[in-house]
């Protein structure tokens, strides 16, 4: 061994890791495209070799120079798509150095897909994570007492529930780096996970995440979703069907473990966006859990009843937006945790209407809302859920009523139009990814932009069977796993240069060097230095505006609504890998 290591060290000294070479650090499907990006000046001959650099399995020339429109930096492409041999390799540029190792094999992203779904398990509230399932990251339960004694905030009083009424509202996932639970963000998250199941049911049945429910009759993605769904159900006021906007401390906790975060918790004002997101998810859950009535007696019916009641509440309270500043002027204690404020509920109406319509086949839902107010196709985010409704209408093309069928050609045209816009000029980009064609992609949580672009492309592929959309979706998974301007793999626990210091309370407080695995960092954000004022930003362009530091909540927090589209993208590409 000593001799082996001595040789290896000599080789590595001669040819060390070249940070200028950026690629998906996990790897590639044998038949799919394989690209590495080489930033700046370099020799033009490249090789693919075994990690010891001894055996050359591919030789090629870098592409012409392309300029990154955001940073102005130049880059070339090393395209080794023709290499289809399974194995572990590196890209080597003699004179420059080599890349991180990667693997070529079938199911190459299965571990990322499973790991990112498992990430939700680590976010579970109200339950301890034993070593058997959580490994090094085992921890005591958080908020067991607190979430069984939640107070009704003065902003949330109703006839039967005066201020200070004590409610039980356990389970759910911690939203992000903090320990609060927000219906709006839970909605898009749960809807996205449930959509992976609806789009790829046989694949999801094979998808085991080693959670306490892995031995039961339900696919683990449904077990995980149920953990949050059961919490969401407790957030509906049985008296009127309204849904509390969030369950929260008045102020954020310090960087402590969940069981040490013992501040009083409140449910706050009901909102129309929470009610509609809740209605959408419950309507979707109702049709998904219907076939599991033996395992979950009555759940599907309860979900549908809850959805309809939330919808009816929203119809009576369409102007009830959540405005934290206004709330804090009127009530005490002031609440200063995540607002998830949204001035426009028209997209929430579209999503809820689409889900209720598809589940019930009742045209009333379809007709109540203007489902196609214009031709805009805004990428999903917590404040903009229109496309979640469109994806569902597209998914159920064959069972739509005549009313829905009539609009279907328009729906298909708009979805493929969005996909065509996304793939336009990707070949001219320095990184050859859909993500990052403009600096506008690098907003807070830009990793979810990349993931949601990927989801939109998968939807277009499902509608058209045109592989160009599927192949484009893969470029964004490559982006998230290392082929980007920072060189990081943005998923904790994966790749040779992973994010290590996310803004995530358990990862900071648990005393373990490696962060909780399977969590997607928010990623580069052009405005991050102004927003979190964390020290250490050196970048001058939006696509590099990222630091792997826990103070950087504007570029390096994690969040459930960012993880969910990663689960979808990685899972869908695994399910569709034979088509690539
Ligand atoms: Ca299971
Ligand atoms: Ca909205």
Description:
A hairpin with a 6-residue loop joins strand 4 (45-49) and strand 5. With 580 residues, the protein is α+β, with helices and mostly antiparallel strands. The chain is 39% helix and 9% strand. The protein has helices at residues 2-14, 110-122, 131-134, 183-199, 201-205, 220-234, 272-289, 299-316, 324-330, 346-360, 363-368, 386-395, 402-423, 446-464, 467-480, 505-509, 528-532, 553-556, 560-575; strands spanning 21-22, 27-28, 35-39, 45-49, 56-61, 66-67, 74-79, 87-93, 97-98, 102-104, 150-152, 166-167, 181-182, 246-248, 266-267. The longest helix has 22 residues, at 402-423. Strands 2, 4, 5, 8, 9 and 10 form a six-stranded mixed beta sheet that branches. It has a five-stranded mixed beta sheet with strand order 12-11-15-14-13. The site of one calcium ion has 7 residues, from helix 10. One calcium ion (CA) is lined by residues 342, 344-345, 347-348, 383-384.
Q: Number of helix segments?
A: 19
Shape: globular
Bound molecules: calcium ion
What would you call the quaternary organization?
single chain
How far the N terminus sits from the C terminus, by CA atoms, comes to 41 Å
Report the C-alpha radius of gyration, rounded: 24 Å
Unreliable segments of 5+ consecutive residues: 1-13
Strand-residue fraction? 5-15%
Could you tell me the number of beta strands? 15
For the biggest sheet, the summary is:
6 strands, mixed
Helix content: 25-40%
Strand pairing plus helix content: what structural class? alpha+beta
* Mean pLDDT across every amino acid position: 96
């Amino acid at each position: 061994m000593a001799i082996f290591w001595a040789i290896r060290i000599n080789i590595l000294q001669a040819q060390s890791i070249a940070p200028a070479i950026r690629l998906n650090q996990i790897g590639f499907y044998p038949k799919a495209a394989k690209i590495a990006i080489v930033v700046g000046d370099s020799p033009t001959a490249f090789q693919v070799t075994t990690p010891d650099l001894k055996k050359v399995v591919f030789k090629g020339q870098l592409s012409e120079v392309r300029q990154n429109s955001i940073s102005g930096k130049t880059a070339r492409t090393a395209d080794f798509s023709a290499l289809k041999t399974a194995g572990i390799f590196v890209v080597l540029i003699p004179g420059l150095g080599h890349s991180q190792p990667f693997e070529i094999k079938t199911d190459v992203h299965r571990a990322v897909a499973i790991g990112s779904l498992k990430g939700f398990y680590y976010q579970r509230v109200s339950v301890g994570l034993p070593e058997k399932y959580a490994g090094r990251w085992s921890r005591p339960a958080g908020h067991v007492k607190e979430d069984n004694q939640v107070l009704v905030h003065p902003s949330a009083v109703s006839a039967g529930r005066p201020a200070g009424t004590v409610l039980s509202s356990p389970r759910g996932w911690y939203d992000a780096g903090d320990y609060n639970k927000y219906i709006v963000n839970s909605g898009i998250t749960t809807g996205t996970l449930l959509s992976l199941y609806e789009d790829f049911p046989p694949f999801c049945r094979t998808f085991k995440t080693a959670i306490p429910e892995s031995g039961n009759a339900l696919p683990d993605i449904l077990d995980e979703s149920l953990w949050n769904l059961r919490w969401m159900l407790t957030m509906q006021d049985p008296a009127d069907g309204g849904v509390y906007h969030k369950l929260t401390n008045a102020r954020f906790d310090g960087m402590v473990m969940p069981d040490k975060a013992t501040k009083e918790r409140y449910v706050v004002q009901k909102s129309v966006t929470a009610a509609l997101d809740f209605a959408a998810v419950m309507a979707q859950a109702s049709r998904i859990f219907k076939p599991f009535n033996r395992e979950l007696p009555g759940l599907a019916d309860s979900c549908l009843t809850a959805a309809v009641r939330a919808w009816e509440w929203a119809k009576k309270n369409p102007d009830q937006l959540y405005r934290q500043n206004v709330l804090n002027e009127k009530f005490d204690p002031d609440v200063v945790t995540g607002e998830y404020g949204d001035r426009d509920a028209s997209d929430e109406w579209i999503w809820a209407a689409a889900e209720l319509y598809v589940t019930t086949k009742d045209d009333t839902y379809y007709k109540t809302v203007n489902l196609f107010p214009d031709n805009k196709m805004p990428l999903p985010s917590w404040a903009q859920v229109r496309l979640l409704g469109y994806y569902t209408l597209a998914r159920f093309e064959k069972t739509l009523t005549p009313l829905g069928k009539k609009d279907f050609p328009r729906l298909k045209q708009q979805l493929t139009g969005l996909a065509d816009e996304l793939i336009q000029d990707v070949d001219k980009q320095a990184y050859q990814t859909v993500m990052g064609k403009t600096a506008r992609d690098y907003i807070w949580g830009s990793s979810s932009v990349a993931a949601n672009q990927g989801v939109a492309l998968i939807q277009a592929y499902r509608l058209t069977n045109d592989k160009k959309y599927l192949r484009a979706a893969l470029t964004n998974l490559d982006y998230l796993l290392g082929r980007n301007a920072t060189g990081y793999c943005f998923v904790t626990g994966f790749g040779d240069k992973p994010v290590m210091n996310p803004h995530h309370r358990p990862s900071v407080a648990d005393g373990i060097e490696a962060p909780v695995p399977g969590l997607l960092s928010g990623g580069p954000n052009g405005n991050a230095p102004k927003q979190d004022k964390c020290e250490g930003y050196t970048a001058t362009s939006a696509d590099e505006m990222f630091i792997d530091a826990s103070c950087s909540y504007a570029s390096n927090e994690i969040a459930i609504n960012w993880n969910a589209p990663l689960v979808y993208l990685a899972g869908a590409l695994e399910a569709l890998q034979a088509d690539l």
